[in-house]
Amino acid sequence: MPTHGSTSSSSHYMPRCRRLLRTCLIAVAALLTGGAASGAKPDFDRDIRPILSDKCFFCHGPDGERREAELRLDTRAGAIESVVVAGDPDGSELIARITSDDESLRMPPVESNLALTAAEKQLLHDWIAAGAEYTEHWAFLPLPAEVPLPKVTHADWPHNEIDRFILARLEAEELSPAERANPLRLLRRLSLDLTGLPPKPADIAAFETAVAADGLDAALHAAVERLLASPAFGEHLAVAWLDAARYADSFGYQSDQLNTQWPYRDWVVRAFNDNLPYDQFLTWQLAGDLLENPTRDQILATAFNRMHRMTNEGGSIAEEWLVENAADRVHTFGSAMLGLTLECSRCHDHKYDPILARDYYSISAFFNSIDENGMYDHSAKVPSPTLLLPTAEQERELANAATAVRNAEQHLADVKMGGSDRLAAWRATNSPPSKGREQPSTLASGERAQGGSLEESIPDATSPVGGSATTENKNPSPNPSLQGRGTIPDLVAHFTFDDKTSETHNANGLPQVPGRAGQAIRCDGDHGVTFPDLLKIDRPDPFTLDLWLRDVLRNPQPVVVAQRTFGTDVGYNGFDLMLADGVLEARLYRVWPGNAIGVRAAEPIAAADWEHITVTYDGSSRAAGLRLYLNGRELQTTILRDKIQKSVAVSTYGSGTFTLGERFRDRGFKDGEFDELRLYARALTPYEITLLHDDATASDDQVHNDAARRDYYFSAHDAPARAAAEKLRDARRQLVASQEAIHEVSVMDELPEPRPAYILPRGAYDAPKTDETRVTRDVFSEMLPPFPADAPRNRLGLARWLTAPNHPLTARVFVNRLWANFFGHGLSTTPDNFGRQGTAPTHPELLDWLARDFVAHGWDVKRLCRQIVSSAAYQQDSRTTPELRERDPENLLLARGPSRRLSAEQIRDLALAAGELLVDKPGGPPVYPYQPGGDLWRESNGMSPAYTQSTGEGLRRRSLYSVWKRTAPLPNMLVFDATSREVCTISRGRTNTPLQALVLLNDVQFVEAARALASAVAKQHAGPRDRIAAAFLRLAGRAPNSAELALLTDLYQEQLASFSTGSDGAGAAQLTALGETKADEAIPPNEFAALTVTCQAILNLDATIYER
Fold first, then answer.
1. Which end of the chain offers a freer environment for a tag, N or C, measured as fewer CB atoms within 10 Å?
2. 553 or 568: whose pLDDT is higher?
3. What is the pTM of this model?
């Protein structure tokens, strides 16, 4: 059987069962790949390397740090230098050590629990005697330009080139292929392998008619083409890729919240149905965002690299999770696309393959430069960077809203342009504002803020801000004055902090200290000053924040102001003002950093001095709309981020709280002091900001400057311009509202400059990072092709390197896996490991021919599927003889057809299809089928979202669309070996347990399916034998033989008698009532129940759940 998961080991002492399994696989593979016959010269790659890799490389392999006795056996130079004398086994220390009777000298050492068999010792002896030649590992050899077809004796058996290779091997083994399978068995096999669904009765009838009219070959060809063209083809093929891509509908850690990534699943289905060439399939997923003018689908495909688990747990460290995310991407890239265990090199050089830790981190550098913070947040739930996926209607609404914004912007500009006469009249009747002195002031109790977009912050004109009085002074002074012209318009609130206690805010016990004017508040780093429901803004809303502060301790990155702040760095959104070592940063964001705008000042503020800070924002959703002022002077800034979409006013825990000096689970403004906080519902002009600082500093040039006066007039006084500005704000709000309903998916988006990458010993994120440990983007040079000189050093260049026509791994790996989809195992039985610990292919020339042919014909996946299922090897009967089963129990020689239990998805979908319950609706959000009693999600984790079972068609969709929660997958899927998809999984194990039969007999989904099947056949057939035969045909794809029909009829009669008695009469009603669909009242309950039980029995038969 194929092994499950990685074959690497993180410990010298591997579990005994795993080691024995791998040793057996290597031994069987060596036998079946033509292991050295007695007296024949051993082949290094086939016979010797597996022994050295399994028994010696852990201590004497590529890992230099772990290497014992400075002995290296993975290279000929290392072996010849010390323990191997070519041509002289008796003079070779290697032979002396492996044959020694002295336990202190014998290799492998006793404590390793490894030992060489007599046959292995003889192979090593014969290899040295023959010259101890080394050859390159088979998977790293260049893909041949051409692979000649082998000659065969029975040339009438092959259907295509595949069969020539299979038959040549069988003839060499003196074996004969099996007969062709029964036509209906072939139809069922094709249908299950190409679509994951059984043939319908109508399909069976049509196929039998076609066989009679046109012959079996023509009927099979038509069936293959029909199945390849079916939408179900992509749905079935997608399952294996989604396992590899670790696709799931939840994040995986802690509370395991649900994500929004299902459009990626639908893209994979479309890609297979559209027969997207495999090289493009890989390129889009690795680097679709880096293609020239990428389409929405090309960007969506990059969600492949965002499918890893994520956390939002308190105390999580962003830097650590950035490293973990990149590590998962490397692991998945290696396993899914290269068939290598790259993850073994995260902590040290690979123990078995020539993959250095430096190689690992060079590849990691390709995946660590996207605009992410490493975690998902408590509010938006879609970690940035993201892609919006509007429906056609939403696209129209979005386009209309964007047009409305552009029109409103133009209208405002036109109003200002046409306002010269109004400006002149205002200037004629209003003298230039003179310089007066600002006095500490506050908004009078009950006074409405002057006509600004933040009036919503004051729930009632006569009630306090946020429900608390805004008065801090019984006799408030006026707002800073433009003398003779009144106060600065659009003031929302002003706080002086002069009172020890106040209903306007909660100082949380923080002390008062002498301030810039009167009293100030000093923060302690753990608490802040909170203002309930103040500054409830979204990104279309302009505002001005103005305050005085002292940065006493020069903290590394304290929070100065934060709005809508909950949780850790990924748990909040809204607006904040930070100090990074004295340098101001202002940000407005939904998810930092990829969905945000932000600026940083070019100079620091003074330490320990009172400084006047002003932040203005114009509502444009552009970083240029954020401006910083220091002591009335605008600061030069650099843009941190300039891409924002959707609302920033998102919160899980209720309304936002405006806070000074602290944020939950963040670094507070320790010993920082605040005074004179003002908020305005408008982006104030530079002159107004100068006046706020100290009107005595407002220079004559500013007062008389035409541009400054013009800006001030249209912003503060001109009624048409202010009305136009309000209309612009409303248009921007509508645009945000239009975006908010659009589905959002996490994707890749490269940073402008690559994030530095370093070798991290033991994989520790906080390992020292120095010039010596820094790495560049590159790939292995020792065993794989060099990186193309003309390729960009980014993920797109990596994709081009991966899909180069002569790449030794890419095509071989995929062809091997697709082969396993049809035969149950690959030509190499370790599809996740083509390295030295993997098994060599049983038919290496066939693997090379298929890979080269695949590339030569445009990486055409459907063509490859057609080739495989059209081969005589695939169409063989699966029955075998005792002698052949003894000689080749795993059918590695392919002397018979495939035989295997169906997958979890196939079994459930087959049951639904047979009962005519299956809804073939494609795509869409995940559905929530039946699960055992109670809420397993909440029972396994109290912080988990509740499981809300679907109704109607949601209970009957294909299993592909069922919700996949990593910490609590659907039990009826797990029992049939579905994976949790927590990590990349290349091949599932296949078990056979009593629990599986119990699920098929008792799980509501299968009971309901059996009842629906009973109803369907009862409507079409009268007698019990005909009904049973019809049910058998739907489930097994063939009619039952006489013995099967007799046994099933007896079962039906027994159940009928039982359900007809008084004691079981209630049982019949209970059985036929399970599930959401209604029982068929046209059939007597006892007959219905008996037929349902009989259908359950058929569902449990090997004939149903096995593909033969």
1. N
2. 553
3. 0.89
